[in-house]
Amino acid sequence: MVRSLKILLFLLCIGLSPAFAQDTDTMTIPPKMETAAVKDTLVPVKKKFQPDAKRAGLYSALIPGFGQLYNRQYWKMPIVYAVMGTPVYFAIKHNNDYQRYRKAYISRLVNEQTSNDEFKGVLTTAGIKQYQDQARQNRDMMILYASLAYTVQIIEAIAGAHLKNFDISKDLSLNIRPDFNPLMGGAGLSLAVQLRK
């Protein structure tokens, strides 16, 4: 009984499959006429630019932002330079502060009474040490952020090259179709997503 039911469902699925087939309203041209028609309507087709992902990554690694330039995504270059330039600017600023505090701290360690540093009478030796450590920590964090931004812009250039001509059709239809799979136990229904026409 179960076997006859499976056979009946299989035949039903085969019989219904033409009802779910894609409907095409295209006219078929006989082979002899097709060549003549195609020869008359030959139009040079401009090939879309497809960037090489390895090359985009290499360009971004050598000069930040040039992978985006190679991908012809010009609007991303200012973003790359802003995201990378901000931590670089603050890393330089914190490094200058660190050098000032370091110089004053060393001067105080040599001789606190004769020290003629810029923080004399403003900060104690312990205060200078605290500011020095904080400036060093901030500088190191900004270097880490700049390195992270550098890595992310390389990855973005590679992903941008891969997705440059990714086709997203407006026709995203979902069809229910009969399906027969002997390995999974017989007939059933399957969902088919049509991404492009």
UniProtKB/TrEMBL annotation:
Q: Does the keyword Ribosomal protein apply?
A: no
Write the record's keywords in alphabetical order, separated by commas. Answer: Membrane, Signal, Transmembrane, Transmembrane helix
Positions of transmembrane segments: 74-92, 142-163
Answer yes or no on keyword Signal: yes
Q: Which residues form the signal peptide?
A: 1-21
Where does the DUF5683 domain lie? 51-186
Q: What is this protein called?
A: DUF5683 domain-containing protein
Task: Identify the species of origin.
Answer: Rurimicrobium arvi
